[in-house]
Amino acid sequence: MIYATVRMYATADQAKKAFALLEDRGLNREDNKINIVTPGAASTPDGVVAAIVSGLVPKAHARIYAQGIARGHSLVSLVAPFGAGRMYEELLDELGPVDSGVVEEHDGPVWDDAAPFSSMLGLPALSKPSPYLFMGLPAVARSGRTTSEWLGLSELASSDFTVFGSPKLSRNPGPFSALFKLPLLKS
Q1: Is residue 184 part of a domain?
Q2: Mean pLDDT across the chain
Q3: CB of 42 within 8 A of CB of 27?
Q4: Cβ neighbour number for residue 150 with a 10 Å cutoff
Q5: Which of 41, 70, 93 marks a domain boundary?
Q6: Is the residue at 51 inside a domain?
Q7: Residues contacting 168, CB < 8 A, separation 6+
Q8: Same domain for 89 and 11?
């Protein structure tokens, strides 16, 4: 299940500033489920809960957030693009959110649907991925050498590189899919 990143702010102006900042970063209401709920957004407490839930917030949490909105706070929620959740959390945190009253449960390993591979391995998701890193090492050193050269390993760039007479590089665009006879995804 996909849930939203939620931040509660002391004033509606702070929430509107956060909302505008997210829109400036290319997110939108439809694709990313950006949601803003301010005091007076609905005429009944159930209406406020429904407005919060519409942003993919669990209903149990939405009831707690609705209490904050009744006290005059405002809420911003969004569903971040895959792999960018941490970056947007940090962005929203810079605007000074207030305590929402929702207690996050951390009894065991935290599973993040947006980063299942990282969750499976118990690794933190990347907040600012760098195209210049490979397994934590720089892909190109300051001297212009590649990581392989720096480590004294041969490059796999040539198609004639073989191990025990078999080519090391595959010409198959989907070797994992071919192994399990799965169709390739089209973009």
Answers
A1: no
A2: 77
A3: no
A4: 14
A5: 93
A6: yes
A7: 156, 161, 162
A8: yes
28 & 76 share domain = yes
Q: How many folded domains does the chain comprise?
A: 2
How many Cα atoms within 13 Å fall on the side-chain side of residue 55? 24
Predicted pLDDT of residue 107: 45
Q: Please, are residues 36 and 75 in contact by the beta-carbon 8 Å criterion?
A: yes
Domain with 12, as residue range(s), is 5-93
Q: Which residues of the chain have pLDDT under 70?
A: 1-3, 32, 104-114, 124-150, 153-171, 187
Q: How many residues does the chain have?
A: 187
What is the widest separation between alpha-carbon atoms in the chain? 74
Q: Which residues contact 99 (CB under 8 A, 6 or more apart)?
A: 8
Interhelix angle 59-70/45-53, rounded to 10 degrees, is 130
Q: How many CB atoms lie within 10 A of CB 6?
A: 24
Alpha-carbon distance 142 to 25, whole Å?
31
Q: Which residues contact 118 (CB under 8 A, 6 or more apart)?
A: 112, 124, 125, 126
Helix then strand count (H, E) for the chain reads 8, 7
**Is 107 part of a structural domain of the chain?**
no
Residue 139: both structure tokens together: 């892909």
Residue 116 lies in a domain: no
Render pLDDT for 105-116 as a digit per residue (tens, 0 to 9). 544 555 566 677
Cut 0.70: pTM above it: no
Beta bridge partners of 76: 7, 36
